[in-house]
Amino acid sequence: MPKASVRMAYAYDRLRAYPPEVAGRIATAIGNALGVRGEEAVLLELGVGTGRIALPLIARGYRYLALDKDPGMLEVFRQKAAGVMRKVRLIEADARAIPLPDESVHGVIVVHLWHLLPDWPKALAEALRVLKPGGVLLEGWDEMEAEEERLIQERWRSLVEAEDVGVVRGLHRKRLEEVEETLKRLGLRPKTKQVVQWREERTLRQALEALEERLYSFTQLVPEEVHERIMPGLWAWAQGEFGDLDRSFTLERSFTLRATRMA
Ligand code: SAM
Fold it and tell me: Residue 37's domain spans which residues?
């Protein structure tokens, strides 16, 4: 296992983690949307990452098929799930070719994956294929807002664009709309609900480090040499703009769930 990939996965895990209360509310919303008794239900998560959605559900008794194509993410997931692994099967595979039979799971969970797949319809078709009749597709997403984070990311973007590299933003939201349209075209009826809103403190340094470590998908298409060239300028700008980089700011966060039941 390459150490760098596990280190990245831990950094991702720290940045995206939910406070315990929030993680519990999300698990409850997913359980309610499923409408199946916990002990019996089998859930599959596509692009499970380090398990921030999965672990509270596993703790509640669901059997969990944790699929991801990145062994570093699955390794961190495995370390975090120590003690409850008997309920879990790790599947290192591509979401566009799920190695499971048709109609074999009660719920398919997808959080922050569609926008990473240019050919997302293949993964959506696979998700629908493995759901049992009456099973539920559960798509979730985070939103976060803070003026400081916005200013830092805007500056990052202008530095990248000055290097003649285009940055694509807003893909996540657009992809969610495309998936919703597809589900409706198939005669299904997705229902969307904001599950929880909360506030978090983050330091300016943490916001810069997330860009430095390329934890957001919009940073990952920037060539390595461009990334290395612009980052010192970003840190210097932030130092001049904000002064103390260990100052914290408030991040408004929320989690939304869209549930679509198969006929
Ligand atoms: N769902 C997790 C969460 O919300 O914390 C992880 C989200 S992370 C942005 C996307 C995850 O999808 C990563 O763990 C990545 O390895 C995985 N992934 C990306 N493309 C994939 C594919 N084609 N098949 C399976 N997993 C994939």
Answer: 3-144+170-201+250-261
Mutate to test the pocket of ligand 1, among 6, 50, 68, 130 (most ligand atoms within 8 A of CB): 68
Assign residue 137 a region: left if phi > 0, alpha if psi is -120 to 50, beta otherwise?
A: beta
Neighbouring-strand partners of residue 145: 252
pLDDT recorded at residue 252: 97
Give the CA distances from residue 63 to residues 68, 110, 168, 172, in Å, rounded to whole numbers and listed in that order. Answer: 16, 16, 37, 29
The pLDDT tens digits of the residues spanning 189-234 come to 999 999 999 999 999 999 999 999 998 888 988 999 999 999 999 9
Say how many Å lie between the CA of residue 156 and the centre of ligand 1: 24
How far apart, in whole angstroms, are the C-alpha atoms of residue 95 and residue 93? 6
- What is the CATH number for 193? 3.40.50.150
Distances (CA, A) of 225 to 2, 8, 108: 21, 19, 38
179: number of Cβ within 10 Å: 23
Give pTM, 2 decimals.
0.93
Q: ipTM value of the model? A: 0.99
Looking at residue 257, its amino acid is: L
User: Going along the chain, which residue ranges are E strands?
Assistant: 42-46, 63-68, 88-92, 105-111, 131-145, 191-203, 248-261
What angle, 0 to 180 degrees and rounded to 10, lies between the N-to-C axes of helices 224-242 and 147-161?
140
Residue at 212 is within a domain: no
Convert the pLDDT of each residue in 154-194 to its tens digit.
999 999 999 999 988 889 999 999 999 999 999 999 999 99
171 Cβ inside 6 Å of ligand 1: no
